[in-house]
Structures are given as structure tokens and as C-alpha cells.
UniProtKB/TrEMBL annotation:
Record-linked InterPro entries: CAT-like_dom_sf, Condensation_dom
Organism lineage: Bacteria, Bacillati, Actinomycetota, Actinomycetes, Kitasatosporales
A Pfam entry, by short name: Condensation
Recorded GO CC terms: cytoplasm
Classification via SUPFAM superfamilies: CoA-dependent acyltransferases
Protein's name in the database: Condensation domain-containing protein
GO biological process: amino acid activation for nonribosomal peptide biosynthetic process; lipid biosynthetic process; secondary metabolite biosynthetic process
A GO MF label: phosphopantetheine binding
All copies of domain Condensation, residue ranges: 22-440
């Protein structure tokens, strides 16, 4: 796929003029092609919802979002495939805000319909907002649904944009000043100047040869189901607090405890005996890079990297925890590298053994500044807790974790129902919760076999073989080869 050496400005759809064009990252290539393959399914679309308690001026609300759109370049971004795949940045985009009266729509149906609607990313606007008035005459309240696409935004970015929106709303609907930097252009330029050599050397040295166990379930029959499903289990606030304190006493983050449990479930699902390699994906913020103010930069920076670890039932649990912790620290220097690149570097891009087929995601987003919450309260507005749905990804199953405002921990198994039934997903997330509750009761000598013994007698969850035609399988393999040519020699310095 040949490309020009410099991106060029030009007239785009709808008569809008693109100020700048940026190369797609390898990760965006994979995600966008998967979205095209699964149009109408809501793949890679995430939603946040919350309750706005207090008066809400629709005109001011819309003006505030428009002000944020005018300020933040990524909200005026689109994707074009001709003459070469790229992100085009428009000088203008209209925000979509729709309000429904109380009783006019069913909330659950609205949320699902809006997710399945997806986005036509050929035009600018990877985010939209829907308002539904609550039938609460005693006090005004409105449910807010924010829907966005992962090709151009991650959850961290959306929380940054929400802070900007609240400031604009409090200021009467307009943010002072023009475009803010850094933005997606600065991130693209930073990526362009990275030398992939050290990353390639790290991953080829770190990833062992052979086929790791990548599914946390035993082979099973066709589910006869379709679509995306979600199964949940919950650790109460005291249970979650015991887990966090125990992890701290082991000198590991709680994410290492989650990953250790998932690694053991992968081992158990594969029916292995003796030492064996397992592999799964872990999410990273992508913001641990040397770019000024990167924590306030809205862009699709969140990434998935392969975690490969050896599980030996005879080894102590503490050893696995430390290996996972240290591996995560080593990977932190390469948060900007995609899983597709790593598969290419390790010779797995065109039919080799995959490094991952599941994902462990720990919710990590910035909190609104305390003074901002106080200013909203001063205007009679209170924001009740946010609920993040998580996106339906291309993985057969993903473990999503989110801590509630009461300190509890919700575990969600987001799954492809054609691969894993609702009953099996519930069994899997239930096993995960049981092992997490068991960890604080372990001692320094506890082995992995002893931890897994908690599940003895329980049937492992089942997962069906992948469906799809030969053409679809070939298309999946092409996801990696396209990314090999995703570099562009330069980005205009004036962008």
C-alpha cells in the first residue's frame, strides 16, 4: 500500500477542509478493519452514563460541548482510506446532542441501540451525547449517555474532555482560548520519532517460542448464540479492601493479583499438567511516555500488550506475582508498541501461534478536580457516579474490572456469545472472584496448585471453536500485514 511521503491537506467529505492528515497507527489499522468487518455490532464502541441531578439547560449544554469540539482537535477527526489510510483533521465539526423527554424512550433499549448504531468515521465526530429526562417531579434529574469510538478516543481521553465540558458549562457554554496543545498531532509526531529497534529487541527476547495457552476455558460445542454478552461477579467493599491490603503486603499492585488469577485460569482451562506458558493481553494507558502534559492529551492512547508468563503448579504464588509485577515494569517503556507489531517481530503475524486471545483490563481514569465538583454544586448540579460499559472488542472474552464508589470491585466477563455462552461466562467470572477472595488467606509457602484446589470439583467453563469462512480468516491475518506500512516520513511542522 504505497503512500506519499508527506500528508497533504485537501477538501474532504461534506466540503470541509482537512487542516492536516496523520498516519494511522498499527493499532488503529487493526481496530478499524475489525470494525468494518463487524459493522452494526457495536464493536469498539464504549459508553459512559451518569445522572445529572439539578437543572440542565439544553442550549447551554450543547454550546459547551461545541466549545470543547472547537478546542479539541481529536473531536474534529475522521478516517479516510483513499488514496492511503489516514486520520484527517477538520477545521469544523458539529457536536451531536439529543434530548428525550421523560417516558419518551426506554433507557436500556436506547443504550443498546446507540451502541449498535456505531460511528461512520469517514466524517468527523467520534463522540455523541444523549440526554433522557428522569420522571422525578420532586427534583430535576437527567440521565446522560456518552458514546464514543476507540479508534480515536480512549476512556482516559473522555474523562479529560468531560473536565473541559464542565468548565465550559460553568462559563456559560464557552471555553476561553483556541485549540489546546498537546493534541493528537503532537502524539503522532512523537510516535513518528521513536526508534522501534529497542522495542523489537525487548519483545523478541521476552516472548518465548512455542504456543502459549491463551483461552481460560476448555474446548466446547457450538453455543448456538450470537452477539456480545456480559457476566458479572462482585467483591464487596471489605473483600476488595482485604485484597488490596494483601497485594500491598506482597509489594505488588492489585493488577498483578488479577493477572495471576487469570494466568491460573488459563492454565486450568487448557487442562495442562506440569510447567507451561500462558499468554493474555493487559491494558496500559499508553501515557507513560516522554511527552509534556500527556496526561491531559485526548487521543486513542490506551493499548493492549501481550503478557507471557510461565505457570508451574509447584511454584509459590509469590513467585508468580513478582514475575508479573516485574514484567509489567519492563513493558512500561514500550506502551506505544502494538500487539500487531509484536506478533510480526516474533514471526506470528501470518498464521503463527497467537500470543493472546483474552484480555485483563483494570479501569484507570483521572478523577475530576475537587474544585470543579464544588463549582458544579454551587450551581445546584450534582453528578451521580459514572458507569462505564466497556467496549465489545475482538477478543473471545475479556476480564474488565472497575472499583465502585463504595469500594467494591466489579468483575465483568465481556464475551463473544458465539464462542462462550452466558452460562460459561458467568462460571468463568465466578471462578475468578472465588480465587481473588482466596488470595488474602494464602501464606508465603502457598503454591499455585493449592490456590487452584479451591476450584476442585467445579467444571471449567467451555469455549467453542472460532466461526468464520476462509475469507474472513484471511482478512484477520491481513490486519497485521497492513500495519507494516503505516509509517509516514513526516508530519508538517506547522500542524
Amino acid at each position: 500500500m504505497a503512500r506519499p511521503s508527506r500528508p497533504r491537506a485537501g477538501r474532504q467529505r461534506g466540503g470541509r477542509r482537512a487542516e492536516c492528515a496523520l498516519p494511522l497507527t498499527w493499532w488503529q489499522h487493526d481496530l478499524l478493519l475489525d470494525s468494518l468487518q463487524h459493522q452494526g455490532t457495536g464493536r469498539h464502541v464504549e459508553q459512559l452514563s451518569w445522572r445529572w441531578c439539578g437543572p440542565l439547560d439544553t442550549e447551554r449544554f450543547t454550546a459547551a460541548w461545541q466549545s470543547v469540539t472547537d478546542r479539541e482537535t481529536v473531536l474534529r477527526a475522521a478516517v479516510d482510506w483513499e488514496p492511503w489510510p489516514r486520520v484527517v483533521l477538520h477545521d469544523r465539526a458539529a457536536v451531536e446532542v439529543v434530548r428525550h423527554r421523560a417516558g419518551g424512550v426506554d433507557w436500556d433499549e436506547l443504550v443498546e441501540r446507540d451502541r449498535l448504531r456505531g460511528f461512520d468515521l469517514r466524517g468527523p465526530g467520534p463522540l455523541r451525547v444523549t440526554l433522557v429526562d428522569d420522571p422525578a417531579p420532586a427534583a430535576p434529574a437527567t440521565r446522560v449517555l456518552l458514546t464514543f469510538h476507540h479508534a480515536l478516543l480512549d476512556a482516559w481521553s473522555v474523562f479529560v474532555l468531560l473536565d473541559e465540558f464542565y468548565r465550559a458549562y460553568l462559563a456559560g457554554g464557552a471555553l476561553p482560548g483556541g485549540e489546546r496543545r498537546p493534541d493528537i498531532r503532537d502524539w503522532a509526531r512523537w510516535l513518528q520519532h521513536q526508534d522501534p529497534g529497542p522495542a523489537r529487541e525487548f519483545w523478541t527476547r521476552t516472548i518465548p517460542e512455542g504456543a502459549p495457552a491463551v483461552l481460560p476455558a476448555a474446548p466446547g460445542p457450538d453455543t448456538l448464540e450470537s452477539g456480545c454478552g456480559r457476566a458479572e461477579a462482585r467483591l464487596s467493599a471489605p473483600e476488595a479492601e482485604r485484597l488490596y491490603r494483601w497485594a500491598a503486603a506482597q509489594a505488588v499492585p492489585d493488577s498483578s493479583a488479577l493477572q495471576a488469577v487469570w494466568a491460573m485460569l488459563l492454565y486450568r482451562g487448557a487442562g495442562l499438567s506440569g510447567p507451561a506458558q500462558v499468554g493474555f493481553g493487559v491494558t496500559v494507558s499508553g501515557r507513560g511516555i516522554a511527552l509534556e502534559a500527556v496526561e491531559r492529551l485526548p487521543a486513542p492512547m490506551r493499548n493492549c500488550l501481550p503478557m507471557s508468563v510461565r505457570v508451574d503448579p509447584a511454584h509459590r504464588l509469590g513467585r508468580l506475582l513478582r514475575v508479573l509485577r516485574d514484567r509489567a515494569l519492563d513493558m512500561a517503556a514500550y506502551e506505544w508498541v502494538s500487539a500487531g507489531q509484536i506478533h510480526e517481530w516474533t514471526g506470528r503475524a501470518t498464521g503463527g501461534d497467537p500470543l493472546l486471545a483474552s484480555l485483563v483490563a483494570v479501569a484507570s481514569v483521572p478523577r475530576p478536580p475537587r474544585e470543579l465538583r464544588a463549582d458544579l454544586a454551587g450551581h445546584g448540579v450534582r453528578i451521580e457516579p459514572l458507569y462505564a460499559s466497556g467496549a465489545h472488542t475482538a477478543f473471545p472474552v475479556a476480564l474488565l474490572t472497575q472499583r465502585g464508589p463504595d469500594g467494591s470491585l466489579t468483575l465483568t466477563a465481556a464475551h463473544d456469545r458465539s464462542r462462550m455462552s452466558a452460562a460459561d461466562a458467568a462460571r468463568l467470572v465466578g471462578h475468578c472472584a472465588r480465587l481473588l477472595r482466596e488470595l488474602p488467606a494464602t501464606g508465603a509457602e502457598t503454591t499455585l496448585a493449592q490456590v487452584l484446589a479451591v476450584l476442585e470439583g467445579d467444571e471449567p467453563p467451555r469455549i467453542a471453536r472460532r466461526r468464520g469462512s476462509a475469507a474472513q480468516r484471511a482478512a484477520r491475518l491481513r490486519l497485521h500485514s497492513i500495519g507494516e506500512r503505516s509509517d509516514v516520513e513526516s508530519i508538517p511542522s506547522g500542524s
